[in-house]
Write a structure and sequence with these properties.
- The protein is α/β, with parallel strands linked by helices.
- Helix content is 22%, strand content 24%.
- Helix 4 links the parallel strand 8 (151-155) and strand 9 (175-180).
Length: 319
């Protein structure tokens, strides 16, 4: 067996055009960690943030292989209960920041963030699920307590996470209102009950919204808080607007009386949740919306596609 593998290693801010491969040793297993042969992985906005800016932070291990999720097979189970060849998904928990991630042919991953799955989906379809659907699932059910009777506003819906949230909410029977800031993308929201061009101010224009999934982030969050009715919940999950904090935010004045604000942090997946998600997709015969699929040798092109914002749906890289 060749003990070398191809990987992307970052140690400084790197534009997509400058993403290149290097050859490094395949990681050696250690107790509590398993070696996964990667079959495919999704590309995420958080990896773009890492590559362009966050790589400067002291808490990022450098050099680092980026990538916060993958699907593949167990190559070496170490001291775990996994078996060689077992189909698994892995995500988060420091992946691609505290330890090497998925932009590689193999990944050494902590056993508590690797989950066995039974799925008939292709590796490509499977790769579009872990982080995106875990985040949508947690935001909708853990944070928003979504029910079929709800009217859900999804702000910033024309992204992979938005499409997943629409898919889940519609299949359980919710009324879905979704926004995009680009008129050309309104046609991509044909599945929802009402599609809106977002000009930055929606408050006062919507009726009977009970739950809101905020994917644009702090840039529009103050306005979104005024879009839901009394007793409604707003979950801030995304930061697509490029604003990461709310300076001068006054909770007493800025959160309307009787409206609840929460957020979802996707760093703590569990085996039960991942099993529930794959079971839900199988039960309802759902497949993720994949916008583009690249082979591993085209990782540079995949990163350029992410940075351009031109892909509608999840970007997947297949090995």
């Amino acid at each position: 067996m060749n003990r070398k593998m191809k990987a992307v290693l970052l140690d400084k801010p790197t534009e997509a055009e400058n993403v290149v491969f290097c050859e490094i040793p395949i990681p050696e297993v250690k107790p509590g960690w398993v070696l996964v042969k990667i079959k495919a992985f999704g590309i995420n906005h958080s990896e773009q943030i890492l590559r362009l800016n966050e790589i400067r932070a002291d808490y990022i291990r450098k050099p680092i292989i980026p990538g916060i999720e993958c699907v593949g097979e167990i190559a070496n189970p170490s001291d775990s209960d996994f078996t060689v060849g077992q189909k698994v998904v892995a995500l988060m928990g420091g992946m691609g920041r505290s330890f090497h991630g998925s932009y590689a042919q193999y990944a050494l991953l902590p056993v508590h963030h690797v989950f066995a799955v039974e799925s008939e989906l292709s590796w490509t379809d499977m790769a579009a699920i872990p982080e995106t659907y875990f985040t949508a699932w947690g935001s909708l059910f853990e944070c928003l307590c979504l029910k079929p009777s709800d009217t859900l506003l999804i702000r910033g819906a024309t992204c992979a996470l938005g499409y997943a949230a629409i898919q889940i909410a519609k299949v359980i029977g919710c009324t879905v209102v979704a926004t995009t800031h680009k008129e050309s993308k309104l046609s991509l929201l044909a599945q929802v009950d009402k599609a809106i061009l977002d000009t930055g101010k929606l408050s006062g224009t919507l009726n009977s919204v009970t739950k809101a999934l905020e994917l644009v982030g702090p840039k529009t969050l103050p306005d979104t808080l005024h879009c839901v009715e009394k007793g409604g919940i707003v979950c801030n999950t995304g930061i697509l607007g490029g604003v990461y904090t709310l300076n001068g935010f006054d909770p007493i004045k800025d959160i309307p009386n009787g409206v609840y604000l929460t957020s979802f942090f996707s760093n703590y997946p569990t085996e039960k949740t991942m099993r529930d998600i794959f079971g839900f997709l199988d039960e309802h015969s759902l497949k993720p919306a994949i916008g583009a699929n690249f082979v591993f040798e085209q990782i540079r092109n995949a990163c350029m596609a992410l940075d351009s914002g031109s892909v509608n749906g999840k970007i997947v890289v297949t090995l």
